[in-house]
């Protein structure tokens, strides 16, 4: 809703049907397969491959969609050089230990002229002025700090969002376009304006996702050294704060689109 859809206009034009060219799309970290299914449905002439370390059974999926098992930390070894017209990945940094190498792999499997589309969280919470909220000011800010520590402890790309532009350019991509999307947490905007209603809808969706994320973060954060009882209190207070939010809070989603030349 705030990101602007599944792709940018140049990608839509690039994926359009051409009788003399086969088109293919790769979605790494496909999760539920929602994005891959949307693309396969909208572009039935394209071969769409979704990949995840733990792929889900999509049931009745479009015939042009395939879901593979893939551990990206071992490379995209199942895919050929210059195989895809578009490579997409959203919010996979938590599971990636060497993000620059992964971008190198994206470059390898993309055709010349192909597009790369990446979106990553930076795992910081900010206030209405887009200033970072520390763990001393907010329980949810403290939980985000604990999450970053846990990810770093595990070797994940916790700073991938900040470095996407440089990593992509270092692999020879061009036409790099960036967008920061500020995702609100909770419905704390005016209800009598179109923008307010839109932000409240997104905020409600994000609040539920954040609460689920907090609930599921125990293993990672306790595994990096936090006492289990301390985590129980932290999760309780952070969840309560997110549920009862009255002032704007946001998470930043860093979105980058680039082209292989």
Any overview of this molecule?
The protein is built from eight helices and seven strands; from the N terminus they run H-E-H-E-E-E-H-E-H-H-E-H-H-H-E. By secondary structure, it is of the alpha/beta class. Strands 3-2-1-4-5-7-6 form a seven-stranded mixed sheet, sandwiched between helices. Strand 4, helix 3 (99-109) and strand 5 (110-127) form a beta-alpha-beta unit. The longest helix has 23 residues, at 194-216. The model has no long low-confidence stretch (mean pLDDT 94).
* Radius of gyration, in angstroms, nearest whole number: 19 Å
Number of helices: 8
The class by helix and strand makeup works out as: alpha/beta
Low-confidence stretches: none
Described by the principal axes of the CA atoms, the overall outline is: globular
> What proportion of the residues form beta strands (DSSP E)?
25-35%
Terminal CA distance reads 30 Å
**H/E topology pattern:** HEHEEEHEHHEHHHE
How does the major sheet shape up?
7 strands, mixed
Strand order of the largest sheet: 3-2-1-4-5-7-6
According to DSSP, the number of beta strands is 7
Quote the average pLDDT: 94
Question: Helix coverage percent of residues?
Answer: 25-40%
């Amino acid at each position: 809703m705030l990101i602007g859809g599944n792709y940018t206009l140049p990608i839509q034009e690039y994926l359009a049907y051409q009788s003399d060219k086969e088109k293919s799309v790769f979605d790494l970290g496909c999760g539920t397969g929602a994005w891959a299914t949307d693309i396969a449905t909208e572009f039935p002439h394209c071969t769409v491959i979704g990949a995840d370390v733990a792929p889900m059974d999509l049931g009745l999926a479009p015939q042009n969609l395939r879901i593979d098992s893939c551990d990206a930390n071992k490379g995209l070894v199942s895919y050929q050089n210059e195989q895809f017209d578009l490579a997409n990945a959203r919010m996979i940094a938590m599971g990636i230990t060497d993000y620059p190498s992964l971008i190198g792999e994206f470059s390898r499997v993309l055709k010349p002229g192909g597009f790369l589309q990446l979106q990553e969280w930076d795992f910081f919470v900010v206030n209405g002025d887009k200033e970072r909220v520390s763990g001393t000011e907010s329980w949810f800010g403290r939980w985000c700090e604990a999450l970053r520590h846990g990810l770093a402890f595990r070797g994940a790309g916790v700073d991938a969002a900040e470095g996407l532009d440089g990593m992509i350019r270092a692999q020879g991509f061009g036409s790099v376009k960036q967008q920061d999307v500020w995702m609100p947490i909770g419905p704390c905007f005016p209800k009598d304006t179109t923008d307010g209603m839109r932000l409240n809808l997104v905020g409600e969706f994000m609040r539920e996702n954040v609460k689920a994320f907090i609930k599921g973060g125990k293993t990672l954060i306790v595994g990096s050294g936090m006492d289990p009882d301390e985590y129980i209190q932290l999760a309780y207070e952070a969840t309560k704060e997110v549920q009862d939010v009255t002032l704007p809070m946001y998470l930043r989603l860093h979105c980058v689109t680039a082209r292989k030349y």
